Every structure is written in structure tokens, then in C-alpha cells.
Amino acid sequence: MGGDLNPETALRVRSRICLMIASAFLFGLAGCNQAGTTTKAAAPAATEAEAEAEEGEFPEFAVAPAELANHKVDEIVNSLRLNATAVQLGKKVYAANCASCHGEELGGTREAHAPNLTDPDWLFSGDHLQTGGVVKLPSDVEWTVLYGIRTDHPQSRGLEADMVAYLPDNRNANDTKQYGNQRFLTDQEIDEVVEYVMQISGQQVADRAKAERGRVLFLDRANCFDCHGDDGTGNPALGSANLTKPELYLFGSDRATVLETVLHGRRGTMPAFEGKLKPEEIKAVSVFVFWRAGRDPNPLPP
């Protein structure tokens, strides 16, 4: 046999190698996945004692954790040794600092209004130049981990946009500066916009005529399209939700909750970990989250 492997075969071989090494070295977590897929990782199969034994079993496929600080996260995911150490350390960092909000299996929690980190719908992400941010990178995760969401840090995500309250008394200073202190929709019009949101999210709609009036407002005076787009699918870079997927509504997708969101606004937050975690820990947890989401580190052909 000679010549180069075709792309599909090469991907299967690479995935098999990643899975074999990761399974042995990283406590039995699920291995790498193909591009564009999201697979929930299996629960660790090894006991604590077995896991500790496995850590030293393949030293040729690992580096010292401190070495991670010398590499960019987008490089780490392309190295067997760096990636193995990053996922191993990142798992521990995640359990200690992130699981309380996002859940042990990264599936998110409604109580903390924390998103599912294992699905392909990542908010506050999109720095890939070639695809205009469609392709997600480990550095997208790292930025959020470093600076948080709507924190005091000037590079924090979400400072430029939030879900504005349609009742002026509930607007913060930034929203008041942008939108003023007057109402721009009546109660009836707000109800119509909510009806339209229910419709595009695939939920039961009692009055299609009302939903149609809401659509017109959504694309005009309600200003919804500015962040959520004409089709309501959102803008990941701004952190605006995809309104066509009710499972992504962090505060709930029932009619009463959607109405509350419109009236009172939403300003979700996440703490910044810069200065709280070591540089190698920030890189490690960023790689771990990216890895658990099943994203391919090389999603585009060369």
C-alpha cells in the first residue's frame, strides 16, 4: 500500500489514535469526534485508583502541565502530548471551577442559566477569519474563560449587547443611553412579538394573525432583528440566542417566561478567571471544554 490516505480515511485513523490514547490516558473519557458532530462523553469507567495508575502509564504521550502555558490553545489541540495533558488537567480544573454552574457532564443547568457546552450552539464565539466565525476554536473558549461574560474587564464578552428591557424602568444605564427612557412598544405589540417568537420556536400558537403582526414588529420597531437576525437564529458573536431552538433559551421558553424576558430584559453573566487560575489551567480547561464538545481541531481542508 502506498500514497496518501484519502481525507475520510485519514480522519478515521486520526480519530482512532486519539480515542485510543485518550481512553487509556484520560480516565476513560470519550475520544475525538469528527467535524460538525457533538457526542456526549461516556462517564469515566476507571476507579480513582485505576485512574491514578493510568496517569503514568503512557508518559511519552504527555508533557508537564506547566508547559501548556508556552503554547496557544489552538496549537495544543493539534498535539497528542499537549492535548493529552491539557484534557487531563482541564478535567480537574472544570470540576473545581465550572461544574457547579454548567453541570458535571457539561450539559448546563437551568438553575444557574448556564448553557450546554456539549452542543454546537456556542454563544460569544466566532473568531475564525476564513469562515467569518462559523468555525469555533479553542481560543473562543479561552477568551470567555479569561475575561468572562459582562464582567468589569474591558475585554469581557457581552458588554456591547444584552437583552434590553422593553419596560424603561428595568433598563440599565447602558441600555437607557442606547434606547432612551421611553417605551417603543405598547403592551399589545409586545404580546404580538411574543406570539411570533413562540411561532418561530416551533411552539403552539393560538393566533396566527397576531404572530404575523409580531413578525412585522420583530423586523422593525421592536429592534429584535438587530441582534437575533431577520430569521431569528441569533448572532453567536454578540451572544444573542437562536430563537428557533427553544432548548437554548437559558431562562425558559414557555410563553410567560418569554414575556418576562421581553419586559424585564436579561443580562447573563459569567465570572472572569484571569488571575484566579494559572495560565496553564486556563488553557487546559479551554481545551477540555472544546474536546468534550466533540469539535474537530482541523475543521477545514488545508
Describe the structure.
The structure is a single chain. The protein is an all-alpha fold and 302 residues long. It folds into 2 domains: 131 residues, Cytochrome Bc1 Complex, Chain D, domain 2; 97 residues, Cytochrome c-like domain (Cytochrome Bc1 Complex, Chain D, domain 2), CATH 1.10.760.10. The chain contains 12 helices and no strands. The radius of gyration is 22 Å and the shape is elongated.
Radius of gyration using CA atoms only: 22 Å
Task: Please count the helical segments.
Answer: 12
Number of strands: 0
Report the CATH topology name of the largest domain.
Cytochrome Bc1 Complex, Chain D, domain 2
Run of helices and strands: HHHHHHHHHHHH
Share of helical residues: 40-55%
Gross morphology: elongated
Tally the structural domains.
2
Strand content is under 5%
At CATH's second level, what is the architecture of the largest domain?
Orthogonal Bundle
Cα separation of the termini: 24 Å
Which CATH class of the largest domain applies here? Mainly Alpha
Specify the structural class: mainly alpha
What number is the mean pLDDT? 82
Largest sheet: none
Uncertain segments are 1-54
